[in-house]
Design goal:
single chain, mainly alpha, five-stranded parallel beta sheet, two-stranded antiparallel ribbon, 46 helices, 60% helix, flat, disordered N terminus
Length: 947
């Protein structure tokens, strides 16, 4: 079969069924994820005729194929089409023409209009008329084609064929013939089939869309839409167990909501009767040995095949797995057992009695004597009550997991170790270590659950200080800055923790809260707290602060956040440190990079900020510790936009949005919306203001960083739309009446935007005092970037006699080239000022350079403005302006995929070269085709020839 044309998954929860002319309503949430693909499917069945009239929806059970089919049927019916539906039923698959009869039943009365020989063939096939022998196959096919053609002359027709894999072969043969000959008729055919390839009996070249797992963000949104959405560790665990399968998400949420949870290594799988019933009949029909193997595989935590079979006492004969493989419950390959669906594992595990499950874990532990980490989990699963030996083994497992880069696994192990600990002091200590792991994972709800356990168990100031770090950061990510401040200050006052590094860690959290809140009363204590924090010779429970390099970087970032005027000097000191640093564990190096990137952000060294964070994020991602990145994600997104890396910014914001949705980082969700709006506006797209939900997700009065980003986004969008009064209103709101910045760091960076809007609306005199207030706020030695922005603003709003002096200072410093959008806008404004003073020859070089920059960036609206100014200055720009490199908007990975596809490589070949899955390659190609203005691989080759 030909490879499907690179469609990404269209995740649609739920199932639908139906026969005749209507699908029964499908309960459940609205369609989620891949909205563009959903729109594509609905577009096929709309009133407008399209060239594509056939589509097959593929996917595993529970991916939402039937729900999407039902939505398409309702859409077609609402637009006036006749919907004929057939549902494949396994029990009827042995009856000839059963599915065809179900499909045509509503229009059988129309057979009276057919010629006699065709009517007889059709009625004979359906058993309506008696005749000798089977119907003539050619006459039957022609009869169905003629019948559908006649109906479509009076009314558009949609055929929906659900679960094609269960339809009888005779029906499929007829429908295959008909589908290849429907081009002349107003008939559209939508089909669904389980699996990743079309079932036998369908045309090999049938257009197909694969409904794969939901994205992390869509899966999180679906989970949050459930009536009893789980929270904390349970939420993250269920998202992992469901693997993006919509049905699994819905069923596991329903199970968790009823309180059913069983313990499995690596996390509990909820239990409900519904889950068991989904697979109980098939499981009970298996031989006893196979059932035992399935149970042991379900109880394992990804153990290899040999371990499962040894524990189950099943010997080495793989034939015992065959019955389960034949009915699609598992696949045994590459020395592993893979469950075909997440709910199979849950159903198989909980179908067994508790004592049988306990014995399975004991047997697995006995088979893993050479693997103490994995053995500990099974001992814990079999443990009833508290057992210090089990707790110690789990703690050792957690330490190993952390060293290997698995904070989530470490947190799980430590929490279970605490639950197994007999002594309250050991429970408190292990809960605290679990909380630190959960903080690194980035799950505030899990952190909150652990914090409550710790505070109820201990009065130890160091343990409470460590716990307050996670709790304070979690509250901040939820948007509760004042509450977070109270939690952290309670750990610092009246008596700070004895360990100096704990104080450093607490102060870094306080600085992050101060930045997000923008409130001076939260920032002010940072410097004093750090001055009282000793180094303790780096005897610290924090591996992140185990070296002087990492602790110094964290201190510097905290001080810079409290007072950005100190950032350039702090960065200079870090750069003066010896080039050869002391050996550091990976986690300490990650911390150093994030600290360095933070200081660079406050020092307006945007390129260094991006590069340091890029390296740090790569390491954090490998450790599963993106929670440590949460406070900096919005800043890095802004830096990428400011430095003109717009394709990378878009990719970064997509990743940030997914993390924010999965972990419910409330203010970051609003930050991402604001930055996406800003980016769209700079590109000249119809951005509109940020969505209403972004303005209400958190209290803006105590989240001034988010408020500032939203105002800047709204102002940029208004300016791009030509609404300069609206732009001025939004930008002016970044400052108080007397010019005091709403946010001490972010507001001043929009001063040139405010001045530009003021100049467009004749409010220069009103704005000039704000410019001077910002000049005073940034101190006598502002950063290079702030110096350029202030000169730009002064040129637009200051005394006319000084305008050219300020314009020159805003455009000549070569350091300013690291911020291409701002530099190009300064040149454009300078050129406009020159042209209006009848100096077009002086304006032309500035306009040419600005136009080149805007075109390269893909800033269509600003490029057109520069082009118009260039024409007005007497330069003919031509009907076809310079085009941006179409590949510039793609990420590095997407560019490589496109190049390989243009060379003729298939998806699987590309995946092998780039170490990706074929589905990822397919998804990327589907997404980049519209950006490149192509629809096929052949056009890609032509594109590269043009380039």
């Amino acid at each position: 079969m030909k490879e499907p044309p690179a469609p990404p998954p269209v995740p649609v929860p739920g199932r639908g069924s139906g026969s005749g002319t209507r699908h029964r309503p499908v309960p459940g949430p609205a369609l989620l994820g891949r909205q563009a693909e959903v729109a594509h499917v609905l577009g096929l069945v709309g009133e407008r005729r399209t060239e594509q009239r056939l589509l097959l929806l593929l996917g595993e059970a529970g991916t939402g194929k039937s729900r999407l089919l039902a939505a398409a049927a309702d859409h077609a019916r609402d637009s006036g089409a006749l919907v004929l539906a057939s549902q494949g039923i396994e029990a009827e698959s042995r009856h000839s023409f059963a599915s065809l009869h179900q499909l045509l039943l509503p229009v059988l009365a129309e057979t009276a209009t057919l010629p006699g020989h065709l009517r007889t063939a059709l009625e004979t096939a359906f058993g309506i008329a008696l005749d000798e022998g089977p119907p003539d196959s050619m006459l039957l096919r022609t009869a169905v084609l003629t019948l559908l053609g006649g109906v479509s002359e009076r009314q558009r027709v949609l055929l929906t064929l659900d679960d094609v894999q269960h339809m009888d072969r005779d029906s499929l043969d007829v429908l295959g013939f008909v589908m290849r000959r429907l081009t002349a008729h107003d008939v559209t055919v939508l089909m669904t089939a389980r699996g990743c390839t079309a079932p036998a009996g369908l045309p090999a070249d049938l257009p197909a869309v694969l409904l794969g797992p939901l994205t992390e963000q869509a899966a999180a949104e679906l989970m949050d839409a459930q009536p009893h959405a789980p929270t904390g560790r349970t939420r993250i665990e269920l998202l992992r167990q469901a693997g993006g399968n919509p049905l699994a998400i819905i069923e596991l949420c329903r199970a968790a909501g009823t309180g059913g949870a069983g313990v499995l290594p690596g996390g509990g799988l909820p239990r409900t009767e519904r889950i068991q019933e989904l697979y109980a009949a098939r499981l009970r029909a298996l031989p006893e040995t196979t059932q035992r193997l399935i149970l042991y595989a379900a109880a394992s935590q990804g153990e290899d095949l040999a371990t499962v079979m040894t524990a189950a006492g099943a010997g080495s004969d793989l034939a015992a797995w065959a019955p389960a493989e034949e009915i699609g419950l598992v696949a045994v390959m590459d020395g592993q057992v893979h469950f075909r669906h997440p709910l199979v594992r849950a159903g198989a595990y909980h179908a067994a009695p508790a004592h049988v499950r306990q014995q399975a874990h004991r047997d697995l532990a006995a088979a893993l004597t050479a693997e103490p980490a994995r053995r500990a989990w099974h001992l814990a699963a079999a443990c009833v009550g508290r057992d210090e030996s089990v707790a110690t083994a789990l703690e050792d497992t957690a330490e190993l997991a952390e060293r290997r880069g698995g904070f989530y696994a470490a947190g799980q192990a430590l929490q279970r170790a605490a639950e197994c600990s007999p002594a309250p002091a050991d429970r408190a200590r292990r809960y605290t270590k679990a909380l630190r792991a959960a903080q690194n994972v980035g799950d505030p709800l899990w952190v909150s659950e652990l914090y409550d356990q710790i505070t109820a168990l201990t009065e130890d100031r160091d343990l409470l200080g460590m716990a307050a770090c996670g709790a304070g950061m979690g509250l901040s990510l939820f948007g509760h800055q004042r509450q977070a401040f109270r939690v952290v200050t309670r750990a610092l006052e009246p008596e700070p923790p004895a360990n100096g590094m704990t104080v450093v860690a607490l102060t870094s959290i306080l600085a992050a809260i101060g930045y997000q809140s923008g409130l001076p009363e939260i920032r002010d204590p940072v410097t004093a707290a750090l001055e009282g924090a000793g180094s303790d010779g780096h005897a610290t429970p924090y591996a992140e602060l185990a070296t002087s390099d990492s602790s110094d970087a964290v201190r510097a970032a905290s001080l810079a956040g409290a007072d950005p005027t100190r950032a350039p000097e702090l960065l200079r000191r870090i750069r003066q440190e010896p080039a050869v640093r002391e050996p550091a564990p990976d986690i300490a190096e990650m911390t150093r990079l994030l600290g360095l990137g933070g200081v660079a952000w406050y020092a307006d060294e945007s390129d260094l900020c991006v590069e340091a964070h890029r390296q740090g994020y790569a390491m954090l991602s490998a450790f599963g510790a993106m929670g440590s990145a949460a406070p900096s994600l919005a800043a890095v997104g802004a830096a990428l936009i400011d430095t003109g890396r717009w394709a990378e910014a878009e990719e970064h914001l997509d990743r940030s949005a997914a993390l924010a949705a999965v972990h419910k980082w409330a203010h970051l969700q609003s930050d991402v919306e604001a930055l996406r709006t800003t980016l769209r506006a700079l590109r000249g797209e119809n951005a509109g203001s940020p969505a209403d939900s972004a303005w209400t997700a958190v209290g803006l009065e105590e989240n001034r960083a988010t408020h500032a980003r939203l105002l800047r986004a709204a102002g940029t969008a208004a300016a791009a739309a030509g609404d300069f009064d609206g732009a001025f209103r939004h930008f002016r709101s970044l400052f108080a009446e007397d010019g005091t910045p709403l946010h001490y760091f972010l507001s001043p960076r929009s001063i040139a935007d405010l001045a530009s809007a003021a100049q467009r609306t004749g409010r220069e005199r009103e704005t000039a005092p704000v410019v001077e207030a910002v000049r005073a706020a940034v101190g006598p030695r502002p950063t290079t970037r702030m110096t350029l922005l202030l000169h730009h603003a002064a040129a637009l709003t200051g005394a006319p006699k000084d305008a050219e002096h300020h314009f020159r200072l805003a455009t000549v410093n070569p350091v300013g080239d690291q911020w291409p959008p701002a530099r190009a806008q300064a040149r454009l404004h300078y050129a406009q000022w020159l042209r209006r003073r009848r100096r077009p020859l002086d304006a032309r070089p500035l306009l040419v350079t600005a136009l080149e920059t805007f075109t390269r960036l893909g800033a269509a609206g600003l490029a057109e403005e520069a082009r118009m100014e260039l024409r007005a200055s007497g330069v003919t720009t031509g009907a076809a302006p310079a085009q941006a490199d179409p590949l510039a908007e793609l990420t590095a990975q997407q560019r490589e995929i496109v190049r390989l596809a243009a060379r003729g490589l298939r998806n699987r070949e590309i995946a092998e070269q780039l170490l990706l899955s074929p589905r990822t390659v397919s998804s990327h190609l589907y997404n980049v085709y519209p950006k490149l203005g192509v629809s096929s691989r052949n056009q890609l080759r032509g594109l590269f020839e043009d380039l």
